[in-house]
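Running this now, will post back.
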Amino acid sequence: MNEKKRKGYERKEALRDLDKELELLEMSRNERKTDFEQEKAEKKKKRSQNKEFAIMAYAFVGLFLALIGYMVYFQAVRSREIVRSPYNARQDSFAENVIRGNIVASGGEVLAKTEVGEGGAESRVYPYGSLFAHVVGFASNGKSGLESTENFTLLTSNAFFIEKFKNEIKDRKNYGDTVVTTLNVNLQKVASNALGNYKGAVIVLEPSTGKILAMVSKPDFDPNTISSIWDSIKDDENGNLLNRATQGQYAPGSTFKIVTALEYMRENPNYSDYRYTCTGEIGVGDVVIHCYGNRVHGEEDLASSFANSCNTSFSNIGVQLNVKSFQETAKELLFGEKLPGDVPYVTSKFQLTESSSDAEKMMTAMGQGLTQVSPYHLALITCAIANGGVLMKPYLVDKVTNYTGSEINKTKPKKYAELMTSGEAFALKELMRGVVENGTASTLKGRSYTAAGKTGTAEYSSDKEKDHSWFVGIRNVDNPDLVIAVIIEGSDGTARAVNVAKEVFDNY
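Update: finished.
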């Protein structure tokens, strides 16, 4: 092999070796790349697994914290509500160790007590008979009124601990706590006597605090005999067990003109310029609306329309109002909303919609139509007017004491909501003052106190000779001390709700 061939062969060998090295390098690079990608994939998988674990851990911690939070909330807030609920059957087991406490009026008069006879037999006694039947309630055949809402308190004893210890040793019952109410016995008597034998209701409040001073509903019953008369009264069509003050549902009649007037003032800042000529009737389509008694009021502004309770003028206002805004005002005044306080009630209804006809708008504006309200609700609206637009939370329990009179807790007046501005409240109060000074409630004019209010007549059937008679009012207009709502069902014209209010106002 010559030198040239040898060198060529060596170069080929060198190139083959180089190719093998390059191939090995490529294989090594690919292996490293694969290892890197596998390592990267492993890290990504671990990160994913760590993320999932972290999410699960956070979720578990979150649920745990939420559970702890709810337990704290339940113990601090809800537990008392659950334990005190009249639907909690466990409360009745407390009676095995506690003699049911007393319910008393604001002046200390006993409204309900437990008498213990020979052999330890207990009987619940109501010294005023039917006078406080609905508001105090009964404690046999179920429970109602304060006997129901304050059941837990009445079956709880905060007697001196040494006395309780001795009673436990001797296997004697402890005396339950006393519920001191805001009820005024004199006002309750006056309201009941003024309502007489008519079906209806009266509720009286102190607007500056929310205290409920009187609550009368008729027909009533004697809670002392509830067990013996239960079968005959529980399904009685007269509704003796129904507390009409809070659970009655009625067309508001002209008392609703308070709401209509407020809406008109909100939509028309120049409301004092309103003018309307009343001819005694107004019609739209086939519907003709008359003023009460077919009266013709002539030229009127808003104040005189309100004072005269002019149906045609307010029907005229009704078709001008923005329905959506009207709905909002009704909602702000708690129509269709939860009412404050601890008394059982029925939610009021305002059912005007943007698709309602002009006739429906007119009927609603004057207080007829499909609107439904309770005396309690109207009294709350009137309280807000009397109190500069602010509604205080109504309450019946002033304080709780143990059976010897030592105070356990006391209710503090609390603001519930601002239903209207102070300016709106003042304007409405002046309209209501005009009803007494120049309008349909003139029987309250010239008393030793000033008064403001709104009368109402609500048709409830085709029988034109009988209507519901309404009145809501304020005593001592510039410094209100009482607010009242009265309804007399099926008034024949001689029974007027404003006369009931007069008796209550006069005797306060």
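Residues 3-84 form the longest helix (82 residues). More later if anyone needs it.
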